[in-house]
Amino acid sequence: MADKNLISTKKCPACQQWSRWQQQAADRCEHCGELLDPRAHGEAQQQAATEHLRGGIQLVEINPEDGAVTRFFKTLVRGGQLVFIAILGFIVWLVTVVAG
Ligand SMILES: [Zn+2]
Predict the structure, then answer these.
(1) If you measure from the C-alpha of residue 45 to the centroid of ligand 1, how many angstroms do you get, rounded to a whole number?
(2) Distance from first CA to last CA of the chain, Å, rounded?
(3) How far apart are CA 60 and CA 55, in angstroms?
(4) Which residues pair with 19 in a beta bridge?
(5) pLDDT value, residue 97
(6) How far is the CA of 14 from the centre of ligand 1 (A)?
(7) How far is 15 from 26, CA to CA, in rounded Å?
(8) What is the pTM for the complete model shown?
(9) CA angle, corner 84, sides to 83 and 90, nearest 5?
(10) Could you tell me the distance, in angstroms and rounded to a whole number, from the CA of residue 10 to the centre of ligand 1?
(11) What are phi and psi of 48, to 5 degrees?
(12) Interval between CA 18 and ligand 1 midpoint (Å)
């Protein structure tokens, strides 16, 4: 126990025992092995999944030297991409909620 500030404890929601945790979403109870913060864990997973999905989407670059028509179409495509990313995020959220 060199630095007390770095060590905190959390009551395990599964077995009601106090367990050490590093305030990480993936930390598990040292008594029963259940997640200490299942909700944060779900959010972290959801975020990672969304990042993973949108990693494959390259947003259209809009250059200042593009003509008005090119810029107009690029803006449309870009808007579509952003909507698509939002829908992906929603699906990931839905799956996370349904999976519990
Ligand atoms: Zn436990």
Answers:
(1) 21
(2) 36
(3) 14
(4) 10
(5) 85
(6) 5
(7) 17
(8) 0.49
(9) 90
(10) 10
(11) -65, -40
(12) 8
Residues in the chain: 100
CA distances from 86 to 17, 41, 56, 96 (A): 39, 21, 14, 15
CA of residue 54 relative to chain centroid, distance: 12
15 CA to centre of ligand 1 in angstroms: 4
Residues 57 and 81: beta-carbon distance below 8 Å: yes
- Using an 8 Å Cβ cutoff, are 58 and 77 in contact? no
Q: How far is the CA of 40 from the centre of ligand 1 (A)?
A: 16
**Model pLDDT for residues 28-47, shown as the tens digit of each residue:** 999 999 999 988 888 888 88
Residue type, 77: V
Whole-angstrom distance, CA of residue 79 vs CA of residue 72: 11
